[in-house]
Amino acid sequence: MESSLPVAKPSHLSTRARRYTCLFVAVLAACIATTVHAARVEIVLDASGSMRGAAGGISKMEAAKQAVRTTVEAIDAGSSVALRLYGHRLPAEPKEPSCHDTELAIPFGPLDRARFVAAVEAAQPLGQTPLAHALEQAAADFGELGELGDEAAVVILVSDGEETCDGDPEAVACAFAERGLGLTVHTVGFDVGEVARQQLQAVARCTGGEYRDAGDAAALAQSLQQLTQAGLLVEKDSAYGREIRGGDTYDQAVAIAPAIEYRLDHHQRKNQYDYFAVEAKGGQKLVATIQTVEKGVVVREDDFRETDNPYGGIEVHAPDRKKIANAIVIGKPNGQNSIEVPTSHERSGRFFVLVGNAFQDQHKDARFKVELVDQFDAGSGQDAPADDEQALRIAPGEHEGWLNANDQIDWYVFEPDPAMAYEVRVRPAHDGKLVRVTVTDLDGVQLAKGDAPNPGAAVRLRDLRFPDGGEGYIKVEGHPVLTVGRKIETTYSLQLTPKPPTP
């Protein structure tokens, strides 16, 4: 990537300076029309007993203290930042009181760095990890969130492990969204295992937040500082969308919320990209859209001039950081282009959205957004996996599923009645789609297999018997040979019907 121009991504500017983009007379009108939103950030820090463990030659608690010191030093003095600790006052046993051990050590107010650091320095790792309870208390620290108006409310939760107090932090976080609190929760997993990682990812995902993995003290300090700075950036809404600045790399990608229209706070040169991230579950389709405005731009040194030739570009990269697709608008005022990326059980997680293009400088007012379209199988809120070991459990009846270019196989499992025979019928909604259906028993014995006789036709498998009971498996797939059948995205109906067996 080429180095950035001062007008494009001036990393030497302070956070406060970056909040103001009315740098040129030519854009004064847009700045005047801008609505400014304040922000409050609360750091919720793990001080449970497990933080006595080592990470990179020092204790995790000492690493956390170092990370907070580094973070606080970089925050503007007038910023409103609070601190909540948990697991720091009571030992792990008895468990009940320890599971309610969380304290608002620094309430919201103008930042007092010395007081903030002193509160963290005094914390000693002792007790349980009450993530759900700490999150509930953190939300209450903001007061009546619904009365904050345009003020952004952000929680950054740091933990080195999963919930140990029988709470459900994911349910708590999802309830924030369901209640419309407007609270964004970012999470940092500090040297965590897979269970804790999934739990923290789910918390962030429910609120449109970002999850960061931190394997050592340096990574923890970097994650905490970047998330805090991003949370405190004053957002601006205008006729062109919410103003935002992306990261320079995958590791610095800024989390964005689905269905929000954004614009950059700077012009870009060609081959310069802002990195953003969005979490997508298996069974959701990610739709990324770029739209130009009336004007294009040519950037030269510290200046720019507007043109009548607007370009715009957007790319989607997979969680493994491989490019999936891009969309470009070339020289078209108010032009629009989109990328559609269906996900699957095997291809889900943190996707990266890169804004920019390789052809021409890009005007900062080019609008972009990412939408998530649910394409879940059998009303489950997830995608049916592509292997039988994780098959999606269903009951007899009619179900709706999805097939697309990235999700060609769905496995289902059900509990058959040994006294009944079963009929399986699968039909795609699209008249160009070919499907194949296979049914096996618990031992992997194939009971029946059928191909649709023509695109759009149903596959019907009759008189399927399971004399030993156990489990029955249904595999639905796009035709594995005919590529036209593989490329078409479509729903399909799956009917599982028990019937008395034929004598």
How would you classify the helix and strand content by structural class? Answer: alpha+beta
Number of helical segments?
Answer: 10
Roughly how many Å is the radius of gyration?
Answer: 26 Å
The 3D shape can be described as flat
Written overview of the protein:
It is a single chain. With 503 residues, the protein is of the alpha+beta class. 18% of the residues lie in helices and 36% in strands. The strands form 8 sheets. The protein has a 6-stranded mixed sheet with strand order 6-5-2-7-8-9, with helices on both faces. Helix 3 packs antiparallel against helix 5, helix 3 packs parallel to helix 9 and helix 7 packs parallel to helix 8. The longest helix is centred in the middle third of the chain and has 16 residues, at 217-232. The chain is flat and about 85 Å long. The termini are far apart.
How would you summarize the topology of this molecule?
Elements: H1 15-18, H2 28-32, E1 35-37, E2 39-46, E3 54-55, E4 58-59, H3 60-73, E5 80-86, H4 95-98, E6 102-106, H5 113-121, H6 131-141, E7 152-159, H7 169-178, E8 183-190, H8 194-206, E9 211-214, H9 217-232, E10 235-238, E11 241-244, E12 254-255, E13 262-264, E14 274-280, E15 284-291, E16 296-300, E17 303-307, E18 312-317, E19 323-329, E20 336-342, E21 349-355, E22 367-374, E23 392-393, E24 397-403, E25 409-414, E26 421-428, E27 435-440, E28 446-451, E29 459-465, E30 472-478, H10 483-487, E31 490-499
Parallel strand pairs: 2-5, 2-7, 7-8, 8-9, 11-13, 12-14, 23-25
Antiparallel strand pairs: 1-10, 3-4, 5-6, 10-11, 14-21, 15-20, 15-22, 16-17, 18-19, 18-21, 24-31, 25-30, 26-29, 26-31, 27-28, 27-30
Helix pairs in contact: 3-5, 3-9, 6-7, 7-8
